[in-house]
Amino acid sequence: MTETTVAVPGADGEPVEVDRVFVPPQPARAFVADDLVLTTIELADKGATAAATELVTRPRRLLTGTTARRRGQMVIEQDGAQGTGWITLAEPVAESLAAHEGERVVVLVVPGEGGAPVAQAVAAGPYPAGTADATRARAVPLVLGGAAPSVVPGGPAAVGLDPQATETTHVRITGQLAAGRRGAAAGLDRSGPVPGENLVPMDRRDETCVTVDAFASRDLDDAVGASWDRDPDSPVWVAVHITDVAGDIGLDSPADQYARTLAATAYLASGPNAPMLDPSMSEGAHSLVVGQDRAVLSARFAVLPDGRVDRVTVEPAWIRSRARLSYRAVERWLAGDGKAVELEASTQAPSVERALRDALEASRRLSVERDARLTLEELFDQAELTPTVVNGELTLASAEPHAEAYRLIERLMVAANEAVGGWLVRHEMPALYRAHEGIDPGRRERLRAAAELAGASLPSVEADDGDPDRVTGELLAEIDRLDREGRIESRDLLISTATSSTARATYEPDPHQHRGLASEAYVHFTSPLRRYADLVVHRQVRAALAGEPPPHEVELLRPLSDWLGARAGALARLEGRERADLWALLLEQGEIRGAETAVVTGLTPAGLRIRVPRLGLPGFLTAEDALGLGDDERAKLETDTHGLTATSASWRVGVRTSVRYAGLDEIGRASWTRADTAG
Question: What confidence tens digit (pLDDT) does each residue in 336-365 have?
């Protein structure tokens, strides 16, 4: 339901503000999450009740649930996170599912009697319960069903898309993702105007460059080259080459409109990726495969001995990758074992290893410079384990198997994004700049209370208009001090509060500071095969190089910023939901046995919010469990205003406790119990 506040005449005729209405169970079964309804409200002593409710619009066209037989008929029991009650099946659908009772399906629905959903067709499934396919068929419609284009502020029309066609594409994408298919980008026409169409690329094919990516990756959109004369006082010259797909996707072509609608390539563990662009381009003609001539946009810069980036240029170029290296091989090379790199580089191994050594020096310098900045990156700890699907089987894998190799390349990519952002500013070209204001101003009061509780000094937080950079610097310094003093719970209190108080990064059409990375102008430039925002930036760069007007004016970039934030954000939430659901499946299968350490991240009257760091999983402990009460006892926690500490018990944010998996709750989330009270 859409939340809003309305004024309703009370018994005395005076208006009463109502922000929630009780809908009796029977009519409630006709509606699902995100429905917009028209309700007649009755006020009584116990609050507002819906006397009559009528469906206005239903953004969700695809619903998920489990097949069941009720009163001799096949129906679908709705997922509890989506709605209650049954979904009636059209006769052909019922016949097709007759032999699949208890299995997960995704169905296309139309409004039936009273607005209740009726399944018109099966979009995905049926899948046996407890499988990775069933998990995907649950996660996709739950997340993307609530992220329909019509609910984005401004809607599709604001970004130059036809509303009806965009809604149809969204439903199609949702169904294909739920079914484990790769989307509908293949074969779309891409003809249309291209910025800088007559640019003449530089010939850089004689320079050594390599791609480094996951072993299974096929959409290789970046390659790196580096050279250094080994003099400690000399700069390392770096070239970050990014495939020039913007020179091949016409503005407002069908391929461009599809990419704008999807906003990013969707990556799921339980199925193939769904490319934003035609795979024949993203995994073929524009993938930087070994030994093939490829058109790129290159960010070239010098990394000085102190880690500063200087002498930035951006150019169109032709390159030819010398080797396609895996993170695994580079990780072994960094550890002193060069055999895997030699094998993957083959006859090019000598020049490839020289380029790697020089790139490593650039990365080392960049890391020293970045460590001197005030950034929030170090607050976010990484999980050790993650679910993965190998040959159709769900299993566990290391969450960051090649951490050092990944960080080597990441530092170069971040430097390129920042370099191009500054270059666009100097060329007075509007773009989609990445903005992050650090600590959310609306959450400073909670951070202030946490600092007092932890015994930390944050003078800039005490001042309402405190400089955000000072806040970040003081915060990091105090976390470091508490760690040195061995005050781990106070450190974790400050970290948990700070990370939950961090603002969400956004796209902006004008240069904005990215305080999360301590950057004055930052853009997404390095993944145009996978993110539409990067494709937009590439078009702006091409126009600036050609001396042409911007293909995307500020008037379009502003709504496009909101659109891409919402659409790409939905895909990120989908990846998180799928991961959480796969974890729930693994926990049910007993893959994680014994106790796990958990950190309390928040307190509510109902219980404790926790995070299990090793697994990267959020969770919840009930108030009864937190207080050590029996199964038949009921209790609430008395907490302070900010949910940082309990006034009726010894719990507070930052406290560590031992927990065990206890089962799934009514909507399929993993539940936990204290290990010392677990049965």
Answer: 999 999 999 999 999 999 999 999 999 999
